[in-house]
Every structure is written in structure tokens, then in C-alpha cells.
Amino acid sequence: MPFRRSGVLTALAAFTALSLAGCGSGNTPAAPSATPGSDAPLSVVTSTNVYGSIAQAVGGDRVAVTSLINDPAADPHSYESTPGDAAKVAGASLVLYNGGGYDDFMERLVQSSGAKPSVINVTQLSGLAPPEPAGSDTAPADDPSFNEHLWYSLPTVQKVADQIASDLGTADPTDAARFTSNAQAFKGKVADLITKEQAIGTAHPGARVAITEPVPGYLVQAAGLTDVTPPAFSEAIEEDTDPPAAVLQQTLDLFTTNPVQLLILNAQTETPTTTQVEQAAQAANVPVVKVTETLPAGVNDYITWMGSEIDAVANALNGS
């Protein structure tokens, strides 16, 4: 589902000229792009630390990764770029972002930078976005059937690793084989996560769950679970609005009449409404698993983070 939060992802007028990169902002510009065969690492800029951790896994010590959003308390949907961010993008060899309306500020930064880094738009790479009608200006973010939280789609993450290796190898042919090897190792670990998801579906086929937002939607699908949340509820929370009273009541009823087996809550966008739903789950002894959109404090590894979230879902359904 699309994010349309008030005031989010706005294009700052300051980005109309790259001369802003020279303004005093307190931000350090990204390291210059490396030339093939040099000892300097390639500069990689990502929208969030989730993608930054994937880029680091593939690039190893041959990349210097900057994630513009790395605060676990931050809401990525409301991030406003700075002139310092524009300077980082302008100096990058590779830019990696989610796309699909999730982090539009990155696309604007690339367009306004005047530079030509390699760019990976995960939405375009994934093949999961619905096709745009010929001659239409409709973006994937405008299609309510599209879930843009693509880092929860493990097959997509494997595609991202391959593309990072390819783009880094083009920028630094000397280390191309190393990037490919790192990507293969990373993809193997992701494959283990896919096996974990499938094990959930085997143990709890079709288990009914509720979610506050579509953030973990790909995990829910891959695990063979059934999301019974009223779509109007998760859409309202996603858009930072209050759901209609009748819709909220339908959601609360999920914990009283034929209760769901699990509530998955996005910890980074908790509101009085989601707190009310969480309290209803707790009152009904329905386990609650909290997920996030960026890496938690103290965690800098995608595999560790995503593995812990999959394990939390499995443990909650297992009653452990």
C-alpha cells in the first residue's frame, strides 16, 4: 500500500541547485568515487541502514557505505533530505534505495545532483510492482495492491545483492570477483532465512494473524500465514490517519471473537490507535511481535536482524 503521510517526502527547494552542497551544514561529504585499481573504497549511499547493511555485506572493505537514515527511532516516511545528503549522493559510485514511493527523497537527490552514479531502484529490480498502464503517469506507490516494503521480500533481497555486486564490479573490475563471491555468500544466508519462513508455514499453515501496517506483509505471505486485518485499518495507519470507528472495532474484534494467533506491530509508527490494538491483544493473551523498518540500535547486520524477526514470529506461534 502507498504511503501518503502529511508533509512527508517533500522536495526541498534547496535541492534545485547542487551549489547547496557547498553550504555549511555540519555534514561531511561522501568520499570521492574510487577509480579502478585504486586503494580508495567505492562510495555507496543508501536510503536506510537496511540497504546499507546489504551493500556492506557485498562490498566488504572495498566500499564506504553511508546510510542517510540510520536512527532506529526515525520514521523513514517523513525524512527530509539535507544539502549534506545531496553532497553525499553527488560523490557516490553507487546509490541504492527502495523506490515505489517509500523513499522518494533519494530519487530527487539523484536527479538534482548533476552526477551520474550507478543507481539501484529496488522496486524496479524486484519485478513485484504492478506494471504501469501505457501512457500513464501512475506510479507503483499509487497502486493499493503494491507493498513497497521490499526488504521483507527475501527473494528480492537476493536480487539486490546480485545487482550490487554487478554494479560494484563495473566500477572496480579488479575486485569484481570478490564482490560476486560476497554476494553469493550473503545470498546463501538469505536462503537459510527463506527456509525458516517456510518452516513456519509447515508448522502453522494458514494461521490467522493481524498486522498494524503492511510492513511485514512479505514475511507473512512467505510464512504461509493469513492476514485477516481489515485493509482499511492498515491503510489508515500507513497513511497516518485514524481509521473509521467501525473499522477500528472490526480490528479489535479480531482479539475477542475467534481470536487471531498473533499481532505483528510496526514499532516505528506506534500511535494511540495501534496502542489500543496492542492492549486488546494483550488482554486476550494474543502474542505481540514488534518489527521495525530500519535496523535496531546495536544491530548492523541484515541477516541477524531479519533472522531475529522471523524467529520472533515462529516462537510466538509456537507458544515459546
UniProtKB/TrEMBL annotation:
Keyword Signal belongs to the record: yes
Matching SUPFAM superfamilies: Helical backbone' metal receptor (SSF53807)
Pfam families: ZnuA
Top-level taxon of origin: Bacteria
Residues of the signal peptide: 1-21
Gene3D superfamilies: Nitrogenase molybdenum iron protein domain (3.40.50.1980)
Compartment(s) where it occurs, according to its Swiss-Prot or TrEMBL record: Cell envelope
InterPro entries per the UniProt record, alphabetical: Bact_metal-bind_prot9, Lipoprotein_PsaA-like, ZnuA-like
Listed PROSITE patterns: PROKAR_LIPOPROTEIN (PS51257)
Keywords linked to the UniProt accession: Metal-binding, Signal, Transport
Chief location: other
Family membership noted in the UniProt record: Belongs to the bacterial solute-binding protein 9 family.
The protein's name: Zinc ABC transporter solute-binding protein
The organism of origin for this protein: Pseudonocardia xinjiangensis
